[in-house]
Structure formats: C-alpha cells, structure tokens
Amino acid sequence: MSKKKVSYFYHSDVGNYHYSSEHPMKPHRIRMANELIKIYGLHNKMQIFSPKIEQFGVREMTKFHSDEYIKFLKRITPETQDQFQRQMNSFNVGEDSPVFVGLFDFCKISSAGSVEGASKLNLGKSDIAINWAGGLHHAKTDQASGFCYVNDIVLGILELLKYHNRVLYIDIDIHHGDGVEEAFYTTDRVMTCSFHKYGSGYFPGTGNIKDVGYKDGKNYSVNFPLDDGMDDETYVKFFKKTITAVMNFYQPNAIVMQCGADSLSGDRLGCFNLTLKGHGECVKFIRSYNKPLLVLGGGGYTIKNVSRCWAYETSLLIDETELPNELPIHEFYNYYTPVYQLHLEPLYMQNKNDTLVLEKHFQEIYENLKDLIPSPSIGERFRPPDLLINESELETDKFLNEKSDFRFTEEQFNSQIRPFNEFYESPNYREKNKLWVKKSIVDILEKYKLESVFDNKLLESFNQVENLKNSNSNIMTNNNRKNIFQYNTETDLSQIMKKIRK
C-alpha cells in the first residue's frame, strides 16, 4: 500500500468524561487507545490535531439536529435535570443515554473531530482522517439513542457532500447504524452499508435486509444481517464481496467508515467472535481503494480490546509494518492483564451464521445494486464555505491561494455540489466568507478573461474587511462592457456566475 497523508484527531480531555460507574460506555477507552498509539510511535507518522471545540457549538450541530434538542443538551446538567423531566422524556435522555458532567463538551469533541477530519479531506490536506472519539451512529435528529447524543457521522458526511457527489458510509459495529441510515434514507447522495447482528430483540432492532431506502434513496441503503459467533474468515469473505459490489455499482467519491469494536470477540455487549486481524482486514481493504477516507470509532465495551483494536487499525491506516505483539510498558499497562499482548485469540463459540443464508443475503443485495443508476450525480452548483477554518490560516495569502486553486479550477466549476447557503451559516460566517468571496471573484474574473473595474473605495474596503459591508462596485465583461451588474456582500457567487455567463 502506498504512503498516505493521515490526519489524527484527539482531544486530551476526552478521557475525563464519565457516563456513570455502572454504564458500559467508557470514554477512557479513547485515552487508552491514544496511549498505545503513542507508545508504538504511530503518532510520528501522522499529523496530530486537537479538535477546535471553541469554534464548534449549537449552530454546527443543528446542520442535522433540531435546534430545541441541541439547546437542551447545552443546558442540561446533573444538577438541573430534575427541571427538565418532560424534555428528557421527549429527547430520550436519562437511562441508556444519561446526563453527566460535561455532556455538551463531550459531544463537541466527538463532532468537531469528525467534521474537521472531513474538511481536511475536502481540502486535499489529508488522504485519511482518523477520529476514534467519533462514530456515534445511533443519535437521531431530535433524540439520543444507544449512548449517542450527537451524530458526528452525519455531520461529517454533510461536510463531505460539499465537495463530493457520492459518499459511501460503511459500518462494522455489531449494532446497526440506524441513525446514519435514517438521515440519508431518501437520497442517492449517500449510500449506507451496515454489517450487524440482527434478530432476537438485539438493539436497535433495525437493519433488516429488506430495508433498502425510499424514493430517491431506494437501494441506497445496504443492510447485511448477521448472527452470533461470526468469525474472521466468514466475516471478511462476505464483507469483501459486498463492498466490491457496492464500489463497482455506486462508485463513491469519498468513504466514511465506522469501526465499532463491539464486534470483537469477548465484548461486554457483543456476540461476535472477531479478532483484531479480521476486524482490521476490513479497514485495510477499504484503504486499498485510495478514496478520501474518514475513519471513526463507535461502540466497544471491553475497553482494553477497544484500545488494542484502534491502535492496531491506526497502524494499518498509516501502512506501518506489523506491530510487536508484546505490549510496551506504559501508563495503562495493567489494564491488559492477564495477557499483555496486542492481539486477541477467538473464543470457543459456535458460529451460528449459515454460509448458504449469507450467500442468499449477498445475492439479494447484489440484485438491488444492479438496479442503481450508474454514478448518480447532480448538476452544477455552488457549495457553502467550509464549516471549520483555522483563523490564523485565513490571514495569509498562501491560504487564500491554496483554497482558490483547489476550489476554482475549471473542473471544480463544472462539478459543484451544493447550492450556496444551503446549509446554515457557521459562527463568524460573514467575517470568514469576506476573504473567501474576495479571492473567489478575482479567480472568476481571471478564469473568464474579465476585467474588474473596482473603484479605490472597494479595493480599500476589501483590505479592511470590517468595512466590506459598505462597499460596492461594478464588474464588466471585456466586450463593450454592456453586461454590468452590481456587487455587494449580500450577493452570493451563484448570482455572480449567472450574470457572467449571460
């Protein structure tokens, strides 16, 4: 496998959050995984980032979630939850998804990492982005579910859709990725593909093979139901067959992969018998497609196995040589008693998955995929600005040149993804967008061989961004200058382009 640019997102506070003493979800597992990644020296092969949670809040989360729900998550605390009993019932917060200290900040960490990772992929700054704190796939538009409050996966996919026509979501958590599937159930812009335990009342109870999507999204939801005792050989065989068919028929531009570790052998809430080798082989297979790839965490409730898994899969993503099986001594070394090794041995348990039944499932999925319209896409449109941009980078000409070169080649103009302003505005949107608009107009003029007739006042106001609102100008074509239109900060680029092309 070729070397790739890998971005790794980790916030040092993530291990401090605590659902409750009896709750199976332990954010500490992410800190343990990070420690293994460091002790094996994997961090030296990646770009390390801490999610910018100070720039991420209600407005970013409400790209998908309801305003009322997110504002509730921001307000609720263990001390005040008695005042919010009605809302807690309405938003399904309380038992499986309890209120704990720092709940909203925890949601910001997981979500900001996934969105920033998607942004790195969009801008070509990374080939692979990793956020083990993400992958919370059960959260719904206005409800918590299955230990998940904010669906960072959906937010990350929405960010990717600004640049990519088609995004493939792959879920190898033992539980069905219901929240992500539900979010994109009626669109062909995102295909969701989930391999999960189904039946016998297993949570969340969704993910039947007959659930294939609706309306424009028909056959763009792929569900592969599995039974107890799934082993490496069988899992990898049908995973590769299914994904090969999905890739051939759907031809995605980018991939998001949720690597829930509760599908591993010996998980506290799981019932599969996968080892790190089998689980990791799926990650390695997806990496081989050389698509922009966002890799996320998810479930996993035997925390020493979760940390083993995500450290190992980090090594696969950076194409590191085989890690030593003997764990190096480090801060959390005693967690791995009694076997201080990286890899797991499968348990002695029956594989209840009948190969003939699995083959029948595959054939049904394959027939559905054959009905897809090849390579669905949309017409020429303009995308909104990136959700998260480093403020210090914004101030440099280098940043502007990099962004304009990436965004405004002829190919990019002919394959725009989303209408300008389709998503909600992010914080400080206008301040960030002024520099973007300035450079974009210059690029448009140069691309279409136009002249700009900016008066001194406009040029001055562009250099002094705070005065931009008061500026205006005319932009004319080179031909007899008949196509004149007025520009101001309320005019978006789609309007500019319409007038240029007349």
TrEMBL record:
<dbReference type="InterPro" id="IPR023696">
    <property type="entry name" value="Ureohydrolase_dom_sf"/>
</dbReference>
<dbReference type="InterPro" id="IPR037138">
    <property type="entry name" value="His_deacetylse_dom_sf"/>
</dbReference>
<keyword id="KW-0378">Hydrolase</keyword>
<comment type="similarity">
    <text>Belongs to the histone deacetylase family. HD Type 1 subfamily.</text>
</comment>
<keyword id="KW-0539">Nucleus</keyword>
<dbReference type="Pfam" id="PF00850">
    <property type="entry name" value="Hist_deacetyl"/>
</dbReference>
<dbReference type="InterPro" id="IPR023801">
    <property type="entry name" value="His_deacetylse_dom"/>
</dbReference>
<dbReference type="InterPro" id="IPR003084">
    <property type="entry name" value="HDAC_I/II"/>
</dbReference>
<feature type="domain" description="Histone deacetylase">
    <location>
        <begin position="23"/>
        <end position="315"/>
    </location>
</feature>
<keyword id="KW-0156">Chromatin regulator</keyword>
<keyword id="KW-0804">Transcription</keyword>
<keyword id="KW-0805">Transcription regulation</keyword>
<protein>
    <recommendedName>
        <fullName>Histone deacetylase</fullName>
        <ecNumber>3.5.1.98</ecNumber>
    </recommendedName>
</protein>
<dbReference type="InterPro" id="IPR000286">
    <property type="entry name" value="HDACs"/>
</dbReference>
